[in-house]
Design a protein that fits this description.
The complex is a heterotrimer of chains A (163), B (350) and C (124). Chain B has 350 residues and is an alpha+beta fold. Chain B has helices spanning 2-16, 58-75, 83-90, 97-112, 122-127, 142-149, 175-192, 285-298, 300-310; strands at residues 37-44, 47-54, 92-94, 158-160, 163-165, 198-202, 205-209, 218-223, 230-236, 240-245, 250-252, 258-260, 263-264, 269-270, 275-282, 314-319, 323-326, 334-336, 343-346. In chain C, a hairpin with a 5-residue loop joins strand 3 and strand 4 (67-73). Classes of the chains: A mainly alpha (163), B alpha+beta (350), C alpha+beta (124).
């Protein structure tokens, strides 16, 4: 592992963590548990297309673990981890079949998978299926936020490639 | 480019001041609401009874239980020494005023329902094995039933003041009205003691006193005759809700024929006239109790005709062919549990 | 693979369907008056909201730190205060206005309507 790669990964992890922490300060737009902008997803999508799967997984895992520690709620680690890993798996499958201009598609489906994973974790942790009524709303919010973060990531990729 | 990103990262990190500080834990007093709903549960009349009353004290609940037990002692068909037992075994008996009132009302209702209710059908019920709890059910043959039916005729029960007598070989049973009457006496007792909100569940006969403490209607479920669940729920206040159904006690013979405990006094056989469950909603428990049995015996058409001629009660009928029939006043008080299971219809006024 | 336009159409259709479904699920208040306060899968309390005549509140503490203050009023229930990081349980408002349970993920708290128990008695 060369220094440049490590530096890149560390930097991206730091940015992801900051986005994560900044976002935690913004109140959720709707009072549905699990709905959030998911700004850190920009980094995941970016890394997936700019660096590759292995590096992305490292960044994702470090961000999820440290993020949970920073927010002081270790319980959120389980939600983030199950969501994050499911999101990662979906992106991994999609990255080869999508063109440069379709990166947002990857992000949308990734975010949907992320929220689905969170919901499954919530059902397991709360030991009640009562929360499942939120499922469609969570998937929808995943599509909207995934679109936003996906377009951001696509734009970042385009601009950084130019630079 | 990465330099710029790094600078941005640093700036943002400074801005947000590294996470939120833990908020101080607030002390909040835990206040429990004063809920004065008191309840008691006891076993009487071969079933479990419960009384829930708002504002009642233990003494009143004990009084309520004592009232039920004293009624059972007086009206039981099987308990030696009870007024009804004496009447059945000696042919005549001196009744207490309340027992005489109950018998008088029961006989009047037998007449009103044209014999669909008959207090003297008891020996037939016993012949089928429904009076004992040991499950010794059997199908009596025609000759046996014919012989027993000779002594089934409520018009031959004589009541003069508190003196009652029955002809040789006749036995009566007030089981079809006792629980309803018990509910009426309990309601009166609670009312006299200042209780304005109560719910009585006398082995499936539900009687409500007033409305719920918060002013809303009581929600009384009605059992689904064809399954374990509910037919739906009725929103009522100050009403008795009594259900009779073939599902309560029944047996099947070797050929698979189903026999239930509600007898048609005319044939001496289980009443199969198109209904599998009848729920009667009305002001008086005794009346509802008697009618739930009588209407079941009458069958769909006659039950509807009876309602049209009287209109002093409401009912929910469930027919053998899967229909659920409601009187108009119940249409908005009844919420079906599963709207698709039965074909629901409101009974026309005429 | 798929054209961008196909993706857009696909997503738009899915979003519409999900939106309608969410609206139906979350917008229609559920019938019933008996609620359960459940923490970590354990029913802590069962409250018949129709029997509540005076408002009161109680605190549910989460063993790993933190608490939610539940406010009970005649016919309705909500989380009045909480020290969870997101505070969503408080913003969810009264349970009676919604078709969905009140949820506090960090404290594993769920306040939900209990379907059948809302009956006062059963005629049989």
């Amino acid at each position: 592992m060369n220094t440049k790669r490590i530096t890149k990964m560390a930097l991206l992890t730091a940015v992801a963590l900051i986005l994560f922490t900044v976002e935690a300060q913004i109140p959720a737009p709707v009072p549905i548990p699990g709905v959030k902008l998911g700004l850190a997803n920009i980094i995941t999508v970016y890394a997936m297309f700019a660096l590759g799967p292995a590096d992305t997984l490292c960044i994702l895992l470090v961000r999820v673990v440290l993020g949970s520690m920073f927010s002081g709620a270790m319980i959120s680690l389980l939600y983030s981890l199950s969501g994050g890993l499911l999101c990662y798996a979906v992106m991994l499958l999609l990255r080869r079949v999508l063109s440069e201009r379709q990166i947002w598609v990857c992000s949308v489906l990734g975010a949907v998978a992320h929220n689905a994973g969170q919901m499954l974790a919530a059902i397991a942790i709360l030991r009640t299926t009562a929360v499942a009524v939120y499922f469609p709303a969570l998937l929808l919010s995943g599509m909207v936020t995934g679109l936003f973060t996906g377009l951001c990531a696509q734009e970042v990729l385009r601009r950084l490639r130019k630079a | 480019m990465y330099k710029r990103l790094a600078a941005l990262a640093l700036g943002l990190a400074l801005l947000c001041g590294c996470g939120a500080a833990a908020q101080p834990q607030k002390e909040t007093e835990t206040v429990q609401a004063a809920q004065e709903m008191r309840s008691t549960e006891f076993f009487a009349m071969d079933t479990v009874m419960s009384v829930r009353a708002c504002g009642a004290d233990e003494a009143l609940l004990a009084q309520a239980e004592a009232l039920v037990l004293s009624l059972e002692e007086e009206l039981s068909t099987t308990r030696e020494g009870s007024a009804v037992y004496t009447l059945d075994h000696e042919g005549h008996a001196e009744l207490s005023e309340r027992a005489a009132y109950l018998l008088g009302r029961a006989l009047a209702l037998c007449a009103e329902t044209d014999g669909a209710l008959d207090v003297s059908v008891y020996p037939v019920v016993r012949a089928w094995g429904f009076t004992t709890a040991d499950g010794s059910y059997r199908v009596p043959d025609a000759a046996e039933l014919d012989a027993l039916l000779q002594n089934v005729d409520y018009t031959r029960v004589l009541l003069d003041g508190t003196e009652a007598s029955v002809p040789e070989g006749m036995e009566i049973d007030l089981g079809a009205v006792t629980k309803g009457y018990t509910g009426d006496l309990l309601t009166a007792l609670l009312r006299e003691s200042g209780v304005e909100s109560a719910l009585l569940d006398l082995g499936g006969n539900v009687q409500t006193v007033g409305c719920k403490p918060d002013g809303s209607n009581w929600r009384v479920g009605v059992k689904d005759p064809a399954g374990e669940g509910l037919l739906g729920a009725l929103a009522v206040a100050d009403k008795a809700v009594v259900t009779s159904g073939g599902y309560e006690r029944y047996f099947t013979d070797d050929a698979g024929t189903l026999y239930w405990h509600i007898m048609d006094p005319r044939s001496g056989c289980p009443a199969r006239n198109g209904l599998i469950s009848v729920t009667v909603v009305g002001d008086e428990g005794l009346y509802c109790d008697a009618l739930s049995t009588a209407l079941f015996v009458m069958g769909t058409e006659d039950a509807i005709a009876f309602w049209r001629a009287h209109r002093d009660f409401d009912m929910v009928l469930v027919t053998e062919d899967g229909r659920l029939l409601l009187t108009p006043a119940l249409a908005e008080r009844f919420t079906p549990a599963d709207a698709l299971r039965y074909e629901t219809a409101v009974i026309a006024d005429a | 693979m798929l054209k961008t336009r196909t993706w857009i159409l696909l997503f738009a259709a899915a979003a519409l369907a999900l939106g309608l479904l969410s609206w139906r699920l979350l917008g229609t208040p559920v019938e019933g008056t008996v609620v359960e306060v459940v923490q970590d899968g354990v029913v802590l309390r069962e409250i018949d909201l129709s029997a509540v005549r005076e408002a009161y509140s109680f605190v549910v503490t989460w063993p790993d730190g933190g608490s939610n203050t539940v406010l009970v009023e005649p016919g309705r229930i909500c989380v009045a205060e909480a020290d969870c990081p997101d505070g969503l349980c408080v913003r969810q408002g009264w349970l009676s206005d919604r078709g969905a349970p009140l949820v506090c993920l960090p404290h594993r708290l769920v306040i939900r309507l209990k379907g059948e128990g809302a009956l006062d008695g059963v005629s049989r």
